[in-house]
Amino acid sequence: MIEVAGSLKRRLAVWLLVTVTGLGALLMIEAWVSSQRAAERAYDSQLEAAALTIAEAVQWEQGEPLIEVPAAALQILATRHQERVFYAVLDADGEAVSANLPFAIEPGWRERAAAEPLALTARLDGEAWRLYGREVDSAGWVSQEPVQVWVGHTRAGRMALADELFERTLTRFVAMVLLAGVLMALALRVALGPMRRLRRVLRRRDADDMRPLDARVPEEMRELAQTLDHLFARQRQSREALLRFTADASHQLKTPLAGLQSVSELALASEEPAEWRAALSAVHEGAGRTSRLAGQLLSLARLRHLGEAEAEAVAPLDLAAALRETLLDWAGREAARDHDLGLAELPAGPVWVRAEGWAIRELLGNLIDNALRYTPPGSVITLGLERLGGLEVPKGLEGGDQDRERVDEVALFVEDDGPGVAEEVRERLLRPFERGGRQDTDGSGLGLSIVDSIARRLGGRLVLAAREPHGLVVRLHLPLCDPEEAP
């Protein structure tokens, strides 16, 4: 069942949007910080230039500093934002020579400015100020006393300049984001183009077209394309197997039906009651064989079309008890009258496997029937169970040494002392309608194929081996289930 879990295009768009948003937020923070720094540097340079201009205007008269602030100094500080601009020239004692600052310069600031030019931000009378001060050496003056020049203005211009710089950056960023969005949409469309082309190729295919894909795909879709090719190959093999099975089944059913028709036609052409009775006996035997063949065909078709979910829901079954019941049933039948059908010593206690009762009975019935049909009268046929030690198997697909576990197995075996089967023929016996070249019996060649299908369904494996000095051993290996799961 296909369940749609969102859109791949939407997921890619969301991830790209999240990434762009995150990077954009970082860039905006950096742009804001950079605009603040740029405004600070620009206005601090103006304060420094104004301070130097004022310092050059300091004159000494009778040992006292005189200052006439040049208009150029104030023009340097004047901007279109109408900040409040102030200055102060202080003598060595901190007394104002000339000033329009509405507050006094603190002693600590003067000490720091005496060492090196000082720029600082202060909040005075509830308003933020930016001040710059420096001490002017008295070299070349008659007096040797230094003076300090302080200039300052409010921060409105700085904030306005920083906002203006940030707005420009933000405008460019928004334009880039919009352009990136358009390019991203185009990139998603181009990137997902191979998926649309592959979808169109698959939709144009006929239902019975199982050829490998003929399409160019990017590296990221190579595994998907290979998986589809493998699926088509399995479907092609399954379809060919179904066609072969249908053809073989038609042939196998046609032969006995044709025989029945011939016998009935001969009987109808005769006036002798004895010939009628012989024909009826032949028809009865042929109908029995045909019915058994049809039953085996139905069983094989049922096994091949059972779902995996049904196999996983199988309850534990006592294999030893099922073996005893099936053997007792077959021992009382007419077909086993001329054979020595027996049971080997079974393990103590129940032998729990995960299997359906009907499947085990069908499997055992086919193995016993094959042994009875393909061995001469008087042959010894023995059934039994054998517990096997733990077998190491991979836990998952990785198959590493650290991902292995031990699984206990049981081997169900049916052995006979008949003529046996040549080694080169044994693997072919698992195919439908394969009888190993034996034409001296009325078997259909479906028994071992049914047994193999049941073994695969139950997670086991079927092994055919020679029995010494002669005969055949068929062993079915099944994994044991946890006894705690048993009913």
From TrEMBL:
Q: Which reaction does it catalyse?
A: ATP + protein L-histidine = ADP + protein N-phospho-L-histidine
Q: Where is the signal peptide?
A: none
Q: Which PROSITE patterns match?
A: HAMP, HIS_KIN
- The Enzyme Commission number assigned here is 2.7.13.3
Where in the cell? Membrane
Q: Which SMART domains match?
A: HATPase_c (SM00387), HisKA (SM00388)
- Enzyme kind, highest EC tier: transferase
Identify the GO cellular component terms for this protein.
plasma membrane
Q: Which Pfam families match?
A: 2CSK_N (PF08521), HATPase_c (PF02518), HisKA (PF00512)
Keywords, in A-Z order: Kinase, Membrane, Phosphoprotein, Transferase, Transmembrane, Transmembrane helix, Two-component regulatory system
Q: Extract one GO molecular function annotation from the record.
A: phosphorelay sensor kinase activity
Annotated HAMP domain ranges read 189-240
Domain (Histidine kinase) spans: 248-482
Against InterPro entries, the record matches this protein to:
2CSK_N, HAMP_dom, HATPase_C_sf, HATPase_dom, His_kinase_dom, HisK_dim/P_dom, HisK_dim/P_sf, Sig_transdc_His_kin-like_C
Which sequence ranges are marked TM in the entry?
12-33, 173-195
Q: Does the keyword Cytoplasm apply?
A: no
Question: What is the official name of this protein in its record?
Answer: histidine kinase
Lineage from the top down? Bacteria, Pseudomonadati, Pseudomonadota, Gammaproteobacteria, Oceanospirillales
